[in-house]
UniProtKB/TrEMBL annotation:
Residues 270-291 are annotated as: Disordered. SMART domains: FAS1. Residues 1-112, 138-263 form the FAS1 domain. It comes from the Eukaryota. Transmembrane segments: none annotated. The lineage of its organism: Eukaryota, Viridiplantae, Streptophyta, Embryophyta, Tracheophyta. Gene3D superfamilies: FAS1 domain. Belongs to the fasciclin-like AGP family. This is FAS1 domain-containing protein. Pfam families: Fasciclin. It comes from Citrullus colocynthis.
Amino acid sequence: MALTLELASRSLLHHSSSLTIFAPTDSAFSRSGQPPLPLLQYHLLPHAFSFESLSSLPSGAKISTMLPGRFLTVTNDETRISLNNVTVDRPPLYDDGSLIIFGIQKFFNPFFESSNASGKRIVQPNLECRDSSIQSNPVEALAAALRNRGWSVMASFLDLQVLGFHKQPALTIFAPTDDSLMNRVGNFSDWMSIFRRHVVPCKLWWSDLANFPGGTEIKTYLKGFSINVNRSSGVLTLNDMSVIFPDMFYSEGIVVHGIGGILEIQNETEGEVEESSSMRNGGSPESGFEVNDEDKAVAHYNFSVFRS
């Protein structure tokens, strides 16, 4: 965690004059790999919380984090102080009054939901320390719409990806159901692969998909992974997965379709699908997407497909 903070300090620590950091152990990093930047923000509080302050909070209370709009849930009981059911070690690793660092044995799960949290108050101390430049953006509107329709896990994926959607001219997202994603959210090293294979660099309405002939392949943002359009008894499927909520959400540059499950990588292992993090030919480092020359030409109703 010390090395991670050194590398990411300019991005993470400029928001606030006081800070609380929850630092997972080296073994937690070894088990899970290097987390994305937004997940690190989820482990920072924009205020110095003492152990006494944490212990005084009622179970179910929510504490603002440096990840905009995301909270940690207090799960204290008689035997321990915990957040998201992760025990907070005592005493702090470091405490100078304005910076407090607590050790924790594993990463907080951003998908954690407490069954006792409904109706509890939200703790938002020292909000003036938050970055006032953060404004509403298309990702927030999209994530909110997905949550309202029952696709909360995919909405959380959107929150946790540094996508820079405002820089993408057109996107289609195929959103798996919560049930299909819940058993896959425990390992965040898989998140980028899962997310990229469900995002297409062009805007495709349901009517567009319905007009594709069987055998059409649509490129995704996961290099080497394509979505195959097939038809069986007149029913359109994507990699044998049904579209259960067409045109669920749409805006000027984005359309989302709900699908029945995850688009799995078939006939090849995860390692065979290259996920290079380097950006080529104008790809935005904020987006996390690779953009090649062919992708640059992609626009609404102008996309590259391969027909068998």
